Amino acid sequence: MADEVKKGLEGVVVAESALSHIDGDEGKLIYRGYTIEDLARGASYEEVLYLLWHGELPNRDELDSFSESMSEEREVDDGVMNTVRELAESDSEPMGALRTAVSMLATYDPDDDSDPADREANLRKGRRITAKIPTILAAFTRIRNGDEPVEPRTDLGHAANFLYMLNDEEPDDVLADVFDQALVLHADHGLNASTFSAMVTSSTLADLHSAVTSAIGTLSGSLHGGANANVMRMLKEVDDSDRDPVDWVDTALDEGRRVAGFGHRVYNVKDPRAKILSEQSEELGEAAGDTKWYEMSVAIEEYMKEEKGLAPNVDFYSASTYYQMGIPIDIYTPIFALSRAGGWIAHVLEQYEDNRLIRPRAKYVGDEDVEFVPIDER
Amino acid sequence: MADEVKKGLEGVVVAESALSHIDGDEGKLIYRGYTIEDLARGASYEEVLYLLWHGELPNRDELDSFSESMSEEREVDDGVMNTVRELAESDSEPMGALRTAVSMLATYDPDDDSDPADREANLRKGRRITAKIPTILAAFTRIRNGDEPVEPRTDLGHAANFLYMLNDEEPDDVLADVFDQALVLHADHGLNASTFSAMVTSSTLADLHSAVTSAIGTLSGSLHGGANANVMRMLKEVDDSDRDPVDWVDTALDEGRRVAGFGHRVYNVKDPRAKILSEQSEELGEAAGDTKWYEMSVAIEEYMKEEKGLAPNVDFYSASTYYQMGIPIDIYTPIFALSRAGGWIAHVLEQYEDNRLIRPRAKYVGDEDVEFVPIDER
Fold first, then answer.
1. C-alpha A77: how far from its chain's center?
2. At A29, which helix (H) or strand (E)?
3. Which residues of B are catalytic?
4. Nearest to B165 by CA among B191, B147, B192, B183
5. How near does any CA of chain A get to the CA of B24, in Å?
6. Could you tell me if B233 and B215 lie in one domain?
7. 8 Å CB contact of A86 and B90
8. Which residue of B has its CA nearest to A92?
9. Which of A64, A374, B64, B312 lies at 20 to 30 Å from A273 by C-alpha?
């Protein structure tokens, strides 16, 4: 049993964490004891960041001071912005651009030479990273469209300021609230692969920027953060086909295609985040007078449940929500990173508090005792 | 037992691998069945890369073709080189600069839009990443010293070309050989933390550049790749103290300081790589007519064995070897990355061949059922 191969580490418990807990049978997600429903409806993204990093929800004064300490860090140094411009003009993949830019932020961070496990320095670094990601992402998206970046504003919340920088237009309250809720929903989720990669990186006492850079790269894969963009590409394919969504899915399943946005390793029932996002998707459709994306999503959800017994995950409804907000499809995954940065940083703070190098083993299945033959005798 | 916390994943087997195997009791390391001693003495770094990536040692024609396909990829695009210049002029940490530059390479890779699991595309990407790391590192090191980068040459081997670009002077055969051996010794080492982080990243079907970027960040920590630089800083401190090395170490141990370069999670006896590097360190000292660093290292090794029962690891002797080659101390860890890139890429190729998302679990130890109170009532 000692040598049993735990490929995927499924079910293996690698850490204790007080951050978030998923009950996959009940479809329940909590952050530090609060249900995701309460937080999405009652707390802003900044409140949730404070909760994850400091252990409790802030009062008004604490929140104001915390929010200000982040909003004043939104500007990004010219060195990084020049690289973002170069990447946008070279048609970089958005996740690759974000990974590169966040990695580069380290050099300009005033705490770059701090002890990697210095909690106060890491909280400052964490606030800076989280504050600057929206600026980087909005600038990248605008530059590749031929537009100039929009400077961040300090008088808007995290969610509203991103939409403002993206569109050069202040969002109305509904859009800002929906986006803020989406950020809350994506802020943390146990030891998903990107969070775990951040922990592995920080376990060598590598710095916080290294850990977040690893996590962005890990999130970019299609089995993780890449899924939300794939859902929207699928919904557009269904729409373009002019076919009934259920017929389309039926054919896709017959052809052995994977229907994006269904199933999750830790949920056996509907992901609670999908429930909240489906309401947002409906609300946005009603506000715009066109609920077709919402209706298409519901039809597919019902059919998948009936045919396959599979429930939608968070990506299934974030797709139509973001689409109806006018966000370009290929930045859905970077937006996931923009939110999850909060969770990554929280887990890295926990890792440093009681660190142990993460170094598993492989079972060697290769050759042994091979005789070496010099190259000219091969 | 199901919920036993495997912090550090010590002893947990997460994969099968045919790449390298460590026998920690015998002090034996093999790559695909060949002993590290045979490879260090008889094979070049390029032969070892071919062995790791293709499963067998190349014959002369295969090696020539492989080496050429790498040497022609040594040049780095202007976009990346401009960022390297900016980082060098901003006094970036070398590992942070390398992490950023390698991440950025993705955008300019002709296979950037390939399927992440396309083996042939990954072999091309792997050759490009490995070929360009020395160019990036040499340019970074020269620019921060106020010198201009030196263009790579295609007529030199991987090791010799790096030393040539670093010093603007072709190395003699002894230096080139010693450096090539050091690269062979560091090329792979089971599932160390950096390799494992590359596997976690690629397990989401993130691309090879994401995986190698994660690994560089992970290697930068002082519990992993950062150790070789710490050994040299310690040896210089011993030298500056004008004290007998054994007395110095004795005092350091009394004061509770950790002596860098000793102990390893998987070796219970002397690391076979340390044996080979100690011979190189001695040889370089004799060639220069001054064996003080070698002698100091031997004295510390003997005392640590006697007092603590600890044997030196690879970092302990790579320190004085690199120092005697005139390599700046703070690029020892990037040089480790320059070599280990070969192993990282080999393990990612294995991961893609039979992929499973790596997603462990945490044991939740936080609050439950906390009542949500709106902010103005807190």
1. 24
2. strand A28-31
3. 224, 264, 315
4. B147
5. 12
6. no
7. no
8. B107
9. A64
